[in-house]
Amino acid sequence: MNLKHALSVILLSGALTVSIISCKPKISDADLKAKVETAIGSNPNVLVDVNEGVVTLSGTVTTEDEKRVLETSAKSADNKAVKSVINDIVIQPIEINTDTADLTAKVADATKDFPSVTATVNDGVITVTGTVEQARIQTLKQSLDALNPKKVDLSGVTVQ
Question: pLDDT tens-digit profile of 131-146?
């Protein structure tokens, strides 16, 4: 009788342990959304929505590769909690500005705070020469990239 009683206690404790382990709390949609947003990085053009573990991505990106990377990142944010990803992201390519007169005027405005820099435009390519402080080179590059040229060539710039 003691053996039956001991065996019953062991089986009951085993069943209880398995049920406690398998009853982990489910992650909330809000927490999952935060995980996905962290995983995809800061992309102001992409919105994340989560409903019962189904992640929906919407917004715009400029390339198919960027769209794929965002979907993969969303899936890997939490492999157990993400049931599926609906990728409603639209690809909206950047229009390249090749109008030399328009681009030249915009380049002049973008470089006005950089007196030691000269920029020329030829067939949509901005070529920059001169010197720029290390702390300001990124600002210059971003300003010129925002004009959507074919290319920004900074190979003639000396960084101090």
Answer: 999 889 889 998 998 8
According to CATH, the topology of domain 25-91 is: Histidine-containing Protein; Chain: A; (3.30.1340)
Residue 54: exposure state from Cβ atoms within 10 A (0-12, 13-18, ≥19):
middle
Where does 100-159 sit in CATH, by number?
A: 3.30.70
In the chain the first and final C-alpha atoms are separated, in Å, by 89
Using CA atoms, how far apart are residues 146 and 137, in angstroms rounded to an integer? 14
Contacts of 37 by beta carbon, 8 Å cutoff, 6+ apart: 48
CA-CA-CA-CA dihedral for 97, 150, 72, 45, to nearest 10: -30
Amino acid at 127: T
Q: Using one digit for the tens of pLDDT, what is the confidence trace for 22-40?
A: 555 589 999 999 999 998 8
Mapped onto helix, strand or coil, the DSSP state of residue 88 is: strand
